[in-house]
Amino acid sequence: MADRREDRDAVLLAPIERTGPGFYWTVGALGLLILWGAIAYWTQLEGGLGVTGLHQPVSWGFYVTNFVFFIGISHAGTLISAILRLSKAEWRRPVTRMAEVITVMVLFIGAAQILVDLGRPDRIINIIRHGRYQSPLLWDATSISAYLTASLVYLYLPMIPDIAILRDRLEKRKLLYAVLALGWTGSPRQQHVLNRAIAVMAVLVIPIAVSVHSVVSFVFSMTLQPMWHSTIFGPYFVVGAIFSGIAALIVAMLVFRKAYGLEGYLRPVHFRYLGQLLLVMSLLWFYFTFAEYLTGYYGSEPEEMKVFRAKFSGRFWPFFWGMALSNFVIPVLCLVRLSRHTVGKVLTASLSVLVGMWLERFIIVVPTLSSPRLPFGEGLYWPTWVEWGETAGSFALFALFYLLFTKLFPIVSIWEIHEGRERGLQEVEARLLSYLPDLAETGLARPGQRG
Amino acid sequence: MPGQESGLTRTVRALQWAMAGLAVLFIGGIVTWIGHLIRTAWRLGDVPSASIGISLVAIPVFLTLLGVILYVVRGLLGDRSAR
Amino acid sequence: MPRWGMVIDLDRCTGCQACVMACKAENNVPAVGRREAARGRVISWMQVLTEEDEGHPGEVRRFLPRPCLMCDDPPCTKVCPVYATYLNPEGIVTQIYARCIGCRFCMAACPYNAKYFNWRAYQREGPDRNPDVSVRPKGVVEKCTFCHHRLQKARERARAERRDLGPGEYVPACAEACPARAIVFGDLADPGSEVARLARSPRAFRLLEALGTKPKVIYLTEGEGRG
Given this model, what pLDDT does residue A370 score? Predict the structure, then answer.
């Protein structure tokens, strides 16, 4: 009977069993972008950070923007997957693993951005030997390490039953799957252990995730610089991270839905729900942004206004208004009515949000540095091919890691789909009945009789 | 048959316990590192309160993670009843 | 324990930038070249900031020589992840080039933009360099050190001659070079020193004082309380 179950879901195992030409073309294309990034970084290692567009006063640019952006995307996974699990939302089943893989892969890429930004990456060991916990960068190091560990565990645990399926069904990579399956047989005791561990992780991972992007925001808000030194940064960044994370998740879902023929599993209803979540996050993001800028504008502190004006109407206006358009106008227009053309609208909104959130990070990092308090002269930041290459290479590397994962492990959780089919219906029915008043209490039926 | 384990199974088992060992080393390493940072800050008088405050949260979190990992490895691997 | 500080009299400053040149010569500050300068990468530990006078637009400029302000509550040392910059007991915010990982957090945090970065390998050892000051490699942050090496040399000479360090024996290059004697340097903790006396002057003000950085470079405003 187990065989029949897996045959129903054979499409989920197909990418692992077979590899088509599409995979090789994609890897080739990604490889070219990664090569560009590698050459860019090599150039930077040889020539120093001078090969970028950075200077005094704009000493942080694309790399720090990318760092914040990628770490932000990491909130997709674990937060969505954990929250949906804890709230017992049944529609999460095909989505959770895709989300969790995003988190793990993008955390590596995000952490790498800081390494790329260092003037002396050969001295990275100094952080370990001589770290100072007064510095927000150390808070970052600790928090991101915790998040990476927790996400890896939270990704791995629900994979174990699926790895056991691979161990039993496939001929190739038997040793890998056998080791990673941890002797899974599906016995009741093992299921109990696993479910308990997953439940603990789902709770634990949420405060860790919140701490990660709060701490990333503290890198800026703990300084005294105008429009950085703001108390709103912690929650603002977390909201922005969840926002961009959902958008990234939707894009990943749509890509693999098309590539692997998963239309049966990732249905319009999933995109409608995620689209609604994206809409809520867009409105929340707008609220935070509005509060932040209104406070600055109303106070009219001269040095803050210098930065504000640079963003609003000065040299950064295309990025600022582009951000507002991409993060608020387009998503709201696309997502208010999702009954028709769901997938198309949700995809448009998600791509728009990804662009907009990258612009938002840029708008936070650069204009403040570009307008120093003292009469230093404005800083004009023009990124060079090195920074563009590093950015492209980072995105491509993330995509490549993700793609390789889908070739080794099922991207949709097979055992959770089975669980949904076999137990989900009864559990939901029992829950629903527990919400409604008992028939005996309403007096509609005599005791002992059921309606 | 219980008691009879092939060479492959033994290799697999060894690798699995090695995974658990790696987790202990990794997280143990991080906890040791945090302790090192506290000690350094104390010695230099450089805001030791920051180090202590952060470690009060960070170390329990890491130890909990390690606990979950070891619980799962022991719970799944130690389960001979299914064999 | 002395607390080294500086008073700069803006009324005396003519904007000649002799302090800038003396500092560069003394501290092996590299000339980054025309192309790099155009890209905003000039390293100038002592920098003369200019401002148009509001009363006479385009005509009179104000000059503000800005070394490292040697804050007593430095925003830069708080954020350094590796102890590459710290406040030493005598009040000098020092820089450890061998420790710096080049994250540039201190540059982002300094409200005075007093920190500079070696975007390329601008500096080389050579016979034209001051042997008392280290040559910085690429990828590290540097800034004004109140010519700390001069303090060390003066102290060692005094110790060799079995006496205490006398007043005026330790002067940074900028204070020494200023032809208008606009820069006065000394021990702020010694109430009798000239720098401490000037710091108490009614004309004295601190740059960006409201931020609470407690800088030890104090400016004397021009004229009758202007500026």
Answer: 94
Instruction: Give yes or no for a contact between C15 and C227, defined as CB atoms under 8 angstroms apart.
Output: no
List the domains of chain A with CATH numbers.
2-428 (1.20.1630.10)
Quick check: B2 pLDDT over 60?
Answer: no
pLDDT bucket at B8, cuts 50 / 70 / 90: confident
Cα A282 from Cα A327, distance rounded (Å): 6
Report whether C69 contacts C58 (CB < 8 A): no
- Rounded to two decimals, what is the model's pTM? 0.94
**Partners for A (CB, 8 Å, 3+ pairs)?**
B, C
Q: What distance in Å separates residue B61's CA from the closest CA in chain C?
A: 22
8 A C-beta contact, residue C73 and residue C214: yes
Side chain identity, residue A421: R
- The domains of chain C, with CATH numbers, are 4-220 (3.30.70.20)
- Contact residues on chain A for B76, CB-CB shorter than 8 A: 160, 182-184, 190, 193-194
Number of alpha carbons in the 13 Å side-chain half-sphere of residue A162? 25
Kindly state whether B32 is in contact with chain A, defined as any CB-CB distance less than 8 angstroms: no
Contact C26/C130 with Cβ under 8 angstroms? yes
Helices (H), chain B: 7-44, 48-77
pLDDT tens-digit map of C65-91: 999 999 999 999 999 999 999 999 999
